[in-house]
Design goal:
heterodimer, A: 394 residues, alpha/beta, Rossmann fold, four-stranded parallel β-sheet, 14 strands, 18% strand, globular, B: 255 residues, TIM Barrel, eight-stranded parallel β-sheet, 12 helices, 8 strands
């Protein structure tokens, strides 16, 4: 059967793989040889599940959004990842990877971060385990995201500015990879999304798949039916989407919708809608769709939400797009911001701006009254208050 | 016979110099090649700049960023070097990352290399297995030798495989590192040079990453067929300009 999951060589259809310099080969090989063995062991699972329950606060609720459902005449559920410790789904992955790093005997953790959410989630689990933590963050992002920089520092992490290239997320990722090249033995690199060389996209998707697995059980209880009609999530790199979609990838009764950031509009030159604007290429060791110039130089995307302005998407998502298994919809800054307010005032939930993009699909697509729609409410809006304040003159 | 193979047969203690195309100025490529040829180097590597050069340290990154902002791209480079063989008979290698090559079209890229009489390629993020499965014949049909990297961490089995499929030389990365000039090599590095040298590989070995002066060149050359210098040359170009190339190369002479 044709699968939308990863194959044994690390590819999703034509996308994925490990296009890495030889200097990274031993590091990636060590992970590739061990990640499944370790993460499927009983002791790992016990420890992982216990931390997800006691520390992260899982299972997160699957909440029936009554007023929103009435307004749109359909059945809308929110998977409340915004209620996770540190305010977003990111910590599911960092818990998984820190446990893996410990089993591999690593003494030092590095990570990249854009807006700082993954950096905070990484610094948090490093503090929890007492492991040294270095976060690479674009020099420009450090200035833009001061509160998250402060959080990482409070948690004991060292924040190193990425000063190369465009000084943002992609450059922070380059710097983290270079650090890993220079420290191949004692260091584990916690990538924050379903991007990078195989096995990262698969590994991160597996750690995040708890989102989709819980959804199945919860729907069974609430709707007496384990499959929704639609699963909808925003896609930057794509980890929250991968986590929700994971158990449904090959279940064609479930329709998948990926929501990208159109920024100021697809044709404005200030956008992050990779499926429309990107071409197949190599970014951070993975073959995928990415935004680039005609000469193959990687370009800087734009979105009002820092979590969605990655120039690529994960290879799983590139394949969902190419195979038409997933429907891709792009949402402008303006519509996303509007939905930040709508969700706040209809359900009393202030979402992260990334998350707001996903909800804006309700204005773009008609759903049937009996459709069961699950949105990944991937993060809370606290981190975006400054942007909301400025935008709405609050 | 290919110029690369000929060089290893006829010469000892090879000195190969890397520079980033489009740096310091967009149209310096040919002047730099002429200077290097006049200075007595044995091989030249032209770096095709990339926005995200993962394997490179700060010096080459910075030169790449500047080269790109100067307007360098693949078309311009091929245009600059179309009459390459009227200036030099040295082996010339293009070092570039995979993404710009994919966007140009890999077959088209190989064809252009053949037209310009380029001798080989170094594509650091093209994995050995993918090359072997998909591109080995294509490169061969265009008289292009593909050079692979090994590091202190590369297993013996993998080195043997790389040796088997290599037809030019093996690029031996001196340490766990991205590119960048170093002053001296530590004991661990020297042990690694010796270990690889004792493997008696069929391919010649060039040591790169961290070679910056006569001392590092000497140590590396004892256990290999020669060295590749990149960052130190770029630093020189930044400080003193193209015209000081000969002086720089003379200072590296070890005979």
């Amino acid at each position: 059967m044709k699968t939308h999951n990863v194959n044994s060589k690390g590819f999703y259809g034509e996308f994925g793989g490990a296009f890495i310099p030889e200097m990274l080969y031993p590091n990636v090989e060590e992970l590739r040889n061990n990640y499944l063995k370790i993460s499927s062991s009983k002791s790992f699972k016990n420890e992982f599940n216990k931390l997800l329950k006691d520390y992260v606060g899982r299972p997160t609720p699957l909440y029936f959004a009554k007023r929103l459902s009435e307004k749109y005449n359909t059945r809308i559920y929110l998977k409340r990842e915004d209620l996770c410790h540190t305010g977003a789904h990111k910590i599911n992955n960092t818990i998984g990877q820190i446990l893996l790093a410990k089993k591999l005997g690593k003494k030092r953790i590095i990570a990249e971060t854009g807006a700082g959410q993954h950096g905070v989630a990484t610094a948090t689990v490093c503090a929890l385990m007492g492991i040294k933590c270095i976060i690479y963050m674009g020099e420009i992002d450090i200035k833009r995201q001061a509160p998250n920089v402060a959080r990482m520092k409070m948690l004991g992490a060292e924040v190193r500015p990425a000063i190369s290239g465009s000084k943002t997320l992609k450059d922070a990722t380059n710097e983290a990879i270079r650090d890993w090249i220079n420290n191949p033995v004692n260091t584990h690199y916690i990538i924050g999304s379903v991007v990078g060389p195989h096995p990262y996209p698969d590994m991160v998707a597996r750690f995040q798949s708890v989102i989709g697995e819980e959804t199945i059980d919860q729907l069974q209880e609430l709707e007496n039916k384990s499959t929704p009609d639609y699963v909808i999530a925003c896609v930057g790199g794509g980890s929250n989407a991968a986590g929700l979609f994971y158990p449904f990838l090959d279940n064609f009764d479930v329709k998948i919708i990926c929501v990208e950031a159109a920024g100021k509009g697809i044709d404005t030159g200030e956008s992050a809608a990779t499926s429309i604007l990107g071409k197949t290429g190599i970014i951070h060791g993975s073959k995928t769709l990415l935004m680039q110039s005609n000469d193959g130089q990687i370009t800087e995307p734009y979105s009002i939400s820092a979590g969605l302005d990655y120039p690529g998407i994960g290879p799983m998502h590139a394949n969902l797009f190419k195979s038409k298994r997933g429907e891709f919809i792009s949402i402008t800054d303006q519509d996303a911001m509007k939905w930040g307010l709508i969700l706040s005032q209809t359900e009393g939930i202030i979402p992260a701006i990334e998350t707001s993009h996903a909800f804006a699909v309700l204005d773009k697509k008609k759903f049937k009254p009996n459709d069961i729609i699950v949105f990944n409410c991937s993060g809370r809006g606290d981190k975006d208050l400054d942007t909301y304040i400025e935008y709405f003159k609050l | 016979m290919n110029r690369i193979n000929k060089t290893f047969i006829n010469k000892k203690n090879i000195l190969s110099i890397y520079f980033t195309a489009g740096y310091p100025k967009l149209h310096d490529t040919i002047s730099i090649i002429k200077e290097l040829d006049n200075s007595g180097v044995d091989m030249i590597e032209i770096g095709l700049p990339f926005s995200d050069p993962l394997a490179d340290g700060p010096t080459i990154q910075e030169s790449s960023t500047i080269a790109l902002s100067n307007g360098m791209n693949t078309n311009i480079l091929f245009d600059q070097i179309k009459n390459l063989r009227s200036i030099t008979e040295l082996p010339i290698i293009i070092m570039g990352y995979l993404n710009p090559i994919i966007q140009y079209g890999i077959e088209e890229f190989c064809l252009k290399c053949k037209e310009c009489e380029i001798d080989g390629l170094i594509v650091p993020d093209l994995p050995v297995d993918i090359y072997y499965e998909h591109y080995h014949d294509l490169f061969k049909n265009h008289n292009l030798q593909n050079m692979f990297l090994i590091t202190p961490q590369t297993s013996e089995k993998r080195i043997r495989f790389i040796d088997k499929i290599s037809n030019g030389f093996i690029y031996m990365v001196s340490s766990y590192s991205t590119t960048g000039a170093q002053k001296i090599f530590g004991d661990e590095t020297i042990k690694y040079f010796k270990r690889i040298n004792q493997m008696k590989l069929r391919s010649p070995l060039l040591v790169g990453f961290g070679i910056s002066n006569k001392e590092t060149r000497k140590v590396a050359s004892i256990n290999s067929d020669g060295v590749i210098i990149g960052s130190a040359y770029i630093n020189m170009l930044t400080k003193h300009g193209i015209r000081q190339t000969k002086k720089f190369i003379n200072k590296l002479k070890i005979d």
